[in-house]
């Protein structure tokens, strides 16, 4: 196994994730090798069911590959204990989803505070960091609101604030604009672009919308049937 | 996660499904209440009985008698191995020196004539040791207990007081004249000093009976109190006397007792001996040790200590039974917690997935559900203890109402001591946490990828 080069934030080597469904085996991710450079914005493009989310979950350490290895900042996720993986998700990566996944029973402030609680950040520091993160996404005035009181775009921005609040170096976004109209979708994309430029974050975004990928990503990797079919810097 | 955050999140989560979680918590509270009410009855009854027993003086007393008490009567049976060891004053002092012994005293009892307003009455007079002060009979008396051990005072039984006057309360403070037969040794004159307390000593033709002569005497006693029941209840009418006088006064009177006759027959009347002695020890736990020592000295002993041990065993069993019945409701409440938490997991699948994606370890998820179970346990426990106490009070109130209706003295049969309250809350929390084990483990094991899949 080759050691990952220093410049790589993420490096997936011959990663496969197979699901056994009775007799048949679903190869959701099938022998993908992929590198993401630090500070790069990579778009994972592909049709529905092509295995994009499964690959993203492997990078997030939420799932373990059937074979192959994932290195993130020179650390092999396969060698991490469940507790280390939890810590990795807490400190190194931030995640946003198509369904926003804000906890409906909590206010925005409590939602954004959640990763800080899990990381056992001091109470005194939390408040300032929650404010800062919500200011970043333009929702500082809505601390006490519940997700249901927000529009879709606002909810996704709040989810971005929650993903950011622990200051991770990598952002993993699974179809963040999938539930949004094109205008609010662009707002979210602009925020991602800001994070990349302003905070130097590495971003991997799953999408099936080629125009968005074309416009914002540094590089586009196309996935089909669990395989990487095209990987290149956009023109 | 930190404890404070866990508790905060738990309360937060419980508040969301308020109705369901309240009902579950009330279930726990009712379970704890039934446990507390049951045990408070057990504890209350035990305290009540213990107090009565301690006051009766039955369980910290040893009764001592010579080894073969009545063998002397039957001449034919008289063993050649001399007389049984007599209970002498020296033996009494020796027993008093044993560790744990509070007092060793004889039972002095004689039939005599008392005069009140110059009218004679024949009655039985008994001595009362100072340790009887706490006897229930003297705690609920009219007037008061003796001022001192050698005060020339008397306490009357209510029945006798009624014979003396319709208005029994007016008797207190009045004088009673005791006419009795005193023994005086024929040879020595020394004991004449002892009769000094007698107000009037009159010696004339006392009938001689071997070692001493019997001389009629009188003494004046002030009535200080009237008791309803006889002290030392439970001795089986051992002391069915009408007039009680302090032990020391009784001893100095040197009145002739029934047992003297016995001594005369046995032929060692020269030395003053006792037919029996009562040994009081500090606590009932010391009874067996002291009893063994006295047996070694060569006397017969009798105590109710073994009987009290059985009683304690009975109460332990009663508490156990009451506890088991009380716990049944709590067991049912536990199932309620399991059910509520399992339902919460089904509803909060996505939330659990999100938590894991945000960096929650399995242990964090487990702790969140544990904390929710624990908070329900604490709330249920606290409310339940209050409720249980209230139920106990109600039972007490009902019982006392019934007793009052039947003109019986009121009792306290329910008690919630602090250890029961704290224990019940701790038990509720423990049981709730145990109920949380399965749901929490299930929540922690939930696969985040599946939980997060967009539906
Ligand atoms: N846990 C699973 N069990 C069985 N099949 C799965 C599971 N997760 C994903 N799949 C299958 O793997 C394939 C890829 O899914 P996914 O990664 O969600 O695709 P995408 O995100 O590109 O739409 C699909 O055919 C899906 O049905
Ligand atoms: Mg997907």
Task: Produce the secondary structure layout.
The complex is a heterodimer of chains A (235) and B (455).
Chain A: E1 8-21, E2 24-37, E3 41-46, H1 52-60, E4 67-72, E5 75-76, H2 82-91, E6 93-96, H3 108-118, H4 123-136, H5 152-164, E7 170-174, H6 182-199, E8 202-207, H7 210-216, E9 219-224, E10 227-233
Parallel strand pairs in A: 3-8, 3-9, 6-7, 7-8
Antiparallel strand pairs in A: 1-2, 1-4, 4-5, 9-10
Helix pairs in contact in A: 3-4, 3-5, 4-5, 5-6
Chain B: H1 3-16, H2 18-56, E1 61-66, E2 87-88, H3 89-96, E3 101-106, E4 109-116, E5 119-128, H4 136-139, E6 142-143, E7 153-157, H5 158-164, E8 175-185, E9 200-201, E10 207-209, E11 212-227, E12 243-246, H6 247-253, H7 258-266, E13 273-274, E14 277-281, H8 287-296, E15 299-303, H9 305-347, H10 349-357, H11 362-405, H12 418-445, H13 448-452
Parallel strand pairs in B: 5-12, 7-11
Antiparallel strand pairs in B: 1-14, 1-15, 2-13, 3-14, 4-5, 4-8, 6-11, 7-12, 8-11, 9-11, 10-11
Helix pairs in contact in B: 1-11, 2-9, 2-11, 2-12, 9-12, 11-12
The complex binds adenosine-5'-diphosphate and magnesium ion.
């Amino acid at each position: 196994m080759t050691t990952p080069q220093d410049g790589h934030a993420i490096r997936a080597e011959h990663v496969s994730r197979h699901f056994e469904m009775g007799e048949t085996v679903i190869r959701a991710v099938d022998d993908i090798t992929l590198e993401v450079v630090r500070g790069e914005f990579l778009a994972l493009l592909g049709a529905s069911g092509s295995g994009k989310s499964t690959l993203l979950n492997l990078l997030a350490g939420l799932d373990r590959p059937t074979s192959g290895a994932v290195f993130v900042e020179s650390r092999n996720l396969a060698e991490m204990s469940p507790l280390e993986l939890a810590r990795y998700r807490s400190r190194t990566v931030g995640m946003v989803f198509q369904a926003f996944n804000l906890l409906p029973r909590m206010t925005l402030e409590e939602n954004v505070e959640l990763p800080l609680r899990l990381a056992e950040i001091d109470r005194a520091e939390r408040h300032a960091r929650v404010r800062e993160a919500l200011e970043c996404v333009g929702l500082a005035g809505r601390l006490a609101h519940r997700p249901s009181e927000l529009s879709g775009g606002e909810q996704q921005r709040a989810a971005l604030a929650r993903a950011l609040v622990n200051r991770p170096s990598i952002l993993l976004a699974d179809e963040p604009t999938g539930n949004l109209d094109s205008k609010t979708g662009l707002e979210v994309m602009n925020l991602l672009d800001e994070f990349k430029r302003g905070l130097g974050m590495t971003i991997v975004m799953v999408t099936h919308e080629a125009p968005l990928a074309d416009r914002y990503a540094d590089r586009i990797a196309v996935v089909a049937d669990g395989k990487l079919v095209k990987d290149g810097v956009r023109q | 996660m930190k404890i404070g955050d866990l508790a905060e999140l738990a309360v937060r989560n419980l508040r969301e499904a308020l109705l369901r979680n309240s009902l579950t918590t009330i279930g726990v509270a009712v379970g704890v209440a039934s446990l507390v009410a049951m045990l408070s009855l057990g504890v209350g009854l035990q305290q009540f009985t213990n107090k009565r027993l301690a006051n009766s003086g039955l369980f910290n007393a040893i009764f001592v008698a010579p080894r073969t008490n009545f063998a002397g009567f039957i001449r034919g049976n008289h063993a050649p191995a001399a007389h049984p060891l007599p209970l002498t004053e020296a033996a009494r002092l020796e027993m008093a020196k044993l560790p744990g012994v509070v007092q060793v005293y004889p039972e002095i009892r004689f039939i005599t004539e008392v005069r009140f307003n110059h009218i004679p009455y024949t009655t039985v007079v008994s001595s009362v040791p100072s340790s009887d002060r706490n006897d229930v009979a003297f705690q609920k008396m009219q007037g008061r207990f003796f001022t001192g051990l050698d005060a020339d005072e008397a306490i009357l039984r209510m029945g006798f007081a009624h014979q003396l006057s319709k208005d029994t309360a007016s008797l207190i403070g009045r004088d009673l004249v005791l006419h009795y037969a005193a023994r005086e040794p024929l040879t020595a004159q020394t004991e004449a000093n002892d009769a000094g307390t007698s107000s009037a000593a009159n010696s004339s033709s006392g009938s001689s009976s071997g070692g001493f002569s019997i001389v009629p005497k009188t003494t004046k006693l002030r009535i200080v109190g009237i008791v309803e029941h006889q002290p030392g209840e439970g001795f089986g009418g051992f002391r069915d006397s009408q007039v009680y006088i302090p032990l020391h006064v009784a001893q100095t009177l040197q009145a002739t007792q029934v047992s003297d006759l016995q001594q005369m027959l046995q032929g060692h009347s020269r030395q003053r001996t006792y037919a029996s002695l009562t040994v009081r020890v500090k606590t009932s736990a010391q009874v067996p040790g002291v009893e063994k020592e006295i047996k070694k000295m060569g006397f017969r002993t009798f105590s109710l200590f073994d009987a009290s041990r059985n009683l304690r065993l009975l109460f332990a069993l009663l508490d156990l039974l009451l506890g088991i019945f009380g716990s049944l409701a709590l067991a049912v409440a536990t199932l309620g917690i399991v059910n509520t938490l399992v339902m919460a997991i089904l509803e909060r699948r996505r939330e659990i997935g999100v938590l894991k994606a945000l960096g929650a370890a399995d242990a964090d998820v487990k702790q969140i559900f544990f904390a929710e179970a624990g908070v329900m346990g604490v709330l249920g426990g606290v409310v339940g203890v209050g409720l249980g106490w209230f139920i106990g009070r109600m039972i007490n109130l009902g019982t006392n109402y019934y007793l009052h209706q039947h003109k019986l003295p009121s009792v306290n049969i329910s008690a919630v001591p602090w250890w029961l309250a704290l224990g019940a809350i701790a038990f509720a929390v423990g049981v709730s946490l145990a109920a949380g084990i399965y749901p929490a483990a299930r929540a922690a094991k939930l696969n985040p990828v599946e939980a997060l899949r967009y539906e």
